[in-house]
Amino acid sequence: MSGSSVKASKGIAGMILAAVIGVPLFVYLLIKLFTSGSGVDITRSTMTTEAVSARLQPVGSIKIVDGGPPGSKSGKAVYEAVCVSCHGTGLAGAPKFADAGAWGARISKGFETLWTHAIKGFNAMPVKGGAADLTDDEVKRAVAYMANAGGAKFEEPKVEGAAADGAVDPATKGKEIYDSVCMACHAAGLAGAPKFGDKAAWAPRLKDGVDSAIAIATKGLNAMPPKGGYSGSDAEFTAAAQYLINSSK
Ligand code: HEC
Ligand code: HEC
């Protein structure tokens, strides 16, 4: 074979290859062009708001879990996870949430009678509202939360980890606040924030003591907003700051 005929046969092979791959591809693209419209059909069931938001849910989210360790659920969290199913609408004669008329006579029985009934059951009110895994204190907190919404002034039993003097435990509540608020800046050191666990960044700030650094942070400092933008109590903010500062020790 001469050189030019090798070239020619290579050229033919190339054309055949282009035809084998190119023609079906061209036809496929042509069909797509005339049939697919915008490409996303919003009437398809997979694109409904419900379907999309369901896919955006974090994997394994369970409503009753409230972030903290067992026994640490607030009255509001317990109410929203358990009690609301009856007390939200007044099902089966349950005193309705925030209905002062329905709660008035019950409140006058006193906090202790009410939480005893909620823990042990009372007529159609099931033991612990049917949630046996709740601790007694969690049920008491939910009773206080509901009764207070109906006009009482009961005090929710403190969340475990909170000391008697109202101080808040840095390792539990403090961490929870850090994770939800402070982390946004202090994890990566955004806007010059001293980084979590960074000894060198924290040392100069702690030279006048931890309390002084926390007092400064409570008021705000340059890009650090007052209390880091946290809207809860000073005691809770202090716990978060202690958790953050402890990481650098
Ligand atoms: C399955 C429905 C149901 C659930 C869930 C439920 N309750 Fe009740 N609850 C009732 C009913 C019904 C009554 C009224 C009972 C009566 O007075 O005969 C009631 C009454 C009460 C009372 C008033 C007791 C009294 O002495 O008057 C309290 C307090 C209470 N519930 C607390 C709770 C708490 C706290 C929860 C959640 C942990 C909860 N309930 C969940 C049905 C429910
Ligand atoms: C919007 C970003 C941002 C958030 C959110 C934030 N911080 Fe800060 N924080 C900063 C910055 C920036 C600094 C450094 C300010 C400076 O020195 O100019 C700082 C400094 C601090 C200091 C040291 C104060 C001192 O005396 O030097 C503490 C303590 C602190 N933050 C605690 C917290 C806690 C606790 C939270 C959460 C409740 C929080 N911060 C949330 C940005 C933030």
Question: How does this structure look, described?
Answer:
The protein is mainly alpha-helical. It folds into three domains: 38 residues; 75 residues, Cytochrome c-like domain (Cytochrome Bc1 Complex, Chain D, domain 2), CATH 1.10.760.10; 77 residues, Orthogonal Bundle (Cytochrome Bc1 Complex, Chain D, domain 2). The protein contains ten helices and no strands. Bound molecules: heme C (HEC) (2 copies). One heme C (HEC) binds next to α3, α5 and α6. Keywords: Electron transport, Heme, Iron, Membrane, Metal-binding, Transmembrane, Transmembrane helix, Transport.
Please give a quick description of this structure:
InterPro entries: Cyt_c-like_dom, Cyt_c-like_dom_sf, Cyt_CIE. Keywords: Electron transport, Heme, Iron, Membrane, Metal-binding, Transmembrane, Transmembrane helix, Transport. With 249 residues, this protein is mainly alpha-helical.
What is the strand and helix layout of this fold?
Elements: H1 3-35, H2 49-56, H3 75-87, H4 100-107, H5 111-120, H6 136-149, H7 170-186, H8 199-202, H9 210-219, H10 234-246
Helix pairs in contact: 3-6, 5-6, 7-10, 9-10
One heme C (HEC) is lined by residues 78, 82-83, 85-87, 91-95, 106, 109, 113-114, 117-118, 122-126, 128-131, 139, 142-143.
